Automatic annotation (TrEMBL):
The keyword Amino-acid biosynthesis does not apply. It is an enzyme of class 2 (transferase). Residues 1-138 form the Nucleoside diphosphate kinase-like domain. CDD domains: NDPk_I. Pfam families: NDK. This is Nucleoside diphosphate kinase. NCBIfam families: PRK00668.1. Belongs to the NDK family. Its EC number is 2.7.4.6.
Length: 153
């Protein structure tokens, strides 16, 4: 099974959508292995969004992520990285398909509800960036055989 990082962005906290968005991942069958509220610094955001540093909107995107605390989550599942990216939908909420999180809740490219890791390699780096080891929990999942066939996980 894979682990992936999701960040509920400040727009989600401000709009009171935290519970609804977390419920999406839970209902899908992803397993929650870590969750905390934290205020992101410009330093950690510069690292996290390093791939955007030449873009004109770099500072604005970072500032938007520091409007208020965010909620960082670690979700586990088979192919969790791809599953969560698919649930999140296209970056621009206006283009994101209905049924996806961004498609259902966002009208914006920047204020797009969630961050989701884009590959297993990135997920491993990002989980280290936002969680200490003792903040992630591996535990027995009692309903695994209701979520998967026994040759799927
Ligand atoms: P992703 O979140 O779908 O992986 P990335 O290209 O990695 O998209 O961009 C990271 C974040 O930067 C996006 O989620 C969005 O908040 C912001 N962003 C990306 N492109 C733009 C843009 O063209 N204008 C403003 N913000 C952008
Ligand atoms: Mg990205």
């Amino acid at each position: 099974m894979e682990r992936t990082l999701v960040i509920l962005k400040p727009c989600t906290i401000q709009r009171g959508l935290t519970g609804e968005i977390i419920a999406r991942f839970e209902k899908k069958g992803l397993i929650l292995e870590g969750m905390k509220m934290t205020w992101l610094t410009d330093e950690i955001l510069s690292e996290h969004y390093a791939h955007l540093k030449e873009r004109s909107f770099f500072q604005r995107v970072k500032d938007a992520m520091a409007v208020c605390p965010v909620i960082v989550c670690c979700w586990k599942g088979v192919d969790a990285v791809n599953v969560v990216r698919t649930l999140a939908g296209a970056t621009n909420g206006r283009n994101a398909a209905p049924g996806t999180i961004r498609g259902d809740y966002s009208m914006s490219v920047q204020e797009n509800i969630v961050h989701a890791s884009d590959s297993p390699e990135t997920a491993a780096i990002e989980l280290k960036r936002f969680f200490n080891e003792d903040e992630l929990f591996s535990y027995e999942t009692k309903n695994l055989l209701s979520l998967y066939a026994n040759d799927e996980f």
